[in-house]
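Researcher: Structure prediction, please.
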Amino acid sequence: MTTDLDDWVASLAAETTDRSLDGLEARIGRDIAMRRRDAHTVRALAPVRMATVGLALAIGVTTGGAAATAAIRTAHPAGPFAAGTQLAPSILLDGVG
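Model: Predicted structure follows.
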C-alpha cells in the first residue's frame, strides 16, 4: 500500500474512457427535475393518503365491532362435542359464568 495518490490519478488519466460524457449535465438536470416533480406529487397526494387510511380504519373498526357483537349475541352450541368455553378459567374468574 505504498502507492501514492498522484500515481493513481496519473494511471486513471492514462486509461481510455469507456463511455462518452456528452449530455451528462442535461441528464442530471432531467433527473433532478423528475425527482422534484415526484416529490411535489407525493406532497400533493398526502391528504388523499391520510383520508384513505382514515376510511380504512373506520371500516375496520365498524366491521370488527359488528363481528364482535354478532359473536357475543349468538348462542353457544351445547352438546357432547361442543367446546366447554363456559368453563374456561377466564370466564370462571370474571364471575360471568
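Model: The helical segments are 5-14, 24-44, 46-73, 89-94.
Researcher: Thanks, that helps.
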